[in-house]
């Protein structure tokens, strides 16, 4: 059985019948199994809230290491990496920190081992899917369906803009939910989300800022679903103009973004406030009002009347 077929079997869930049919008889199999790694896999997998078959999938990967004469430095670390690979291939949302808590190794060491093994076995390991994580998190935290739908939409929008590149899917998912939940009545604080995803609040805010900068008018459309297409495109126009004006130079982008949102919302008669946008963006209300006034002056200088051109809301 080739390594690619091992991956395919794991992803499809056909490993038990597809792989073991090719294994040697039990007496010979004991000679090829890396027993310390297999034992460590069983120990770590015990207590994980996952399908019992994941331990078998991880053991198959451990056996492939021995078949290919790949060195095992630490059975526990290798076992943790095999479990993480199995979880990723089977799209099971298990955080590496949860696995790390059952070993003496850090999440960085386990991820490093996972990368080493996947390279040696030539098995591409996908990142955890943010949409799967959103679905799971919404169920765990009993979030309303409207939050789940908006979070899914924002996650896809951010992915299309490249906001997920080189980013942990867990911090990305946390940022998506933070942005979506902030203006709602859902009682879910920044600290609550950070704790749920086992990340720092500073990392959560940083990822939120990156997401806001990447999505721009698309997030405006998600946040204000009744906005007209002209209003949405006008956000992009304002942001584009701000990049070339003197008044916007050396000013924080998120403040300009929030000011543009407030300007367009007022012009299109969309109910919102500086206080609401401050919660979404993390920018102070006074800064948002100041950037709003900057856009008012800018539009007066250009003699444009956006109220007439934005059209009716959807």
Describe this structure in words.
The chain has 314 residues and is mainly alpha-helical. It has helices at residues 3-12, 15-18, 26-32, 35-45, 53-67, 75-89, 96-100, 107-121, 130-140, 145-160, 169-181, 190-196, 201-215, 217-223, 229-242, 253-267, 274-281, 285-301, 306-309. Helix 12 (190-196) packs across helix 13 (201-215) and helix 16 runs antiparallel to helix 17. The longest helix has 17 residues, at 285-301. It is elongated. Residues 15-33 and 307-314 have low confidence and may be disordered.
Please write out the topology.
Elements: H1 3-12, H2 15-18, H3 26-32, H4 35-45, H5 53-67, H6 75-89, H7 96-100, H8 107-121, H9 130-140, H10 145-160, H11 169-181, H12 190-196, H13 201-215, H14 217-223, H15 229-242, H16 253-267, H17 274-281, H18 285-301, H19 306-309
Keywords:
314 residues; 19 helices
Mean pLDDT: 81
Q: In oligomeric terms, what are we looking at? A: single chain
Low-confidence stretches: 15-33, 307-314
Q: In percent, how helical is the residue content?
A: 55-70%
- The end-to-end span amounts to 56 Å
Largest sheet: none
Q: SSE order in H/E notation?
A: HHHHHHHHHHHHHHHHHHH
Count of helical segments?
A: 19
Report the principal-axis shape: elongated
